[in-house]
Amino acid sequence: MSVAFTREEDLEATAADLPDRPISSHPNLVTATGLAQIEAELTDAKAAYAAAQARGDIEADRTAMARATRDLRYWAARRASAQLIETEPDGRVRFGGSVTIAREDGRTQTWTIVGEDQADPAKGSVSHVSPLARALLGKGVGEDATVNGQAVEVVAVT
Questions:
Q1: Which of 21, 34, 67, 110 has a C-alpha 20 to 30 A away from that of 91?
Q2: What is the pLDDT of residues 36-49, one digit of tens each?
């Protein structure tokens, strides 16, 4: 059926039935920065929900209310399950710390191991449940690990 033959209300109704954002089954470990990020997202979600309610005509814009409700549920659940982890440096790759690895091709890369909501590989942070982090956690300088089928060496831990 062509989009021309759908009613605008049908599109609104479909958008209003947004599925919940998936919540990881892994422990929700967070750094202090990650916890602050979750709290900021929760504050934003509460504001978006209040704004959608304040418009008064929920029937006219159910999409905004559905998005706000979904995000509020997600961030409230993430805040409720957050486990703040503060580790002391001990020369080993730990949650919240950074690790520099040397690859076989001569490249070096530095990664910070953080919680799932805080991870941003483009900015150098990876989730503690990522294959990279799982391969490196507990390693010390000079130790080898296998990442994506390639050998890497830990050259620095901070």
A1: 34
A2: 999 999 999 999 98
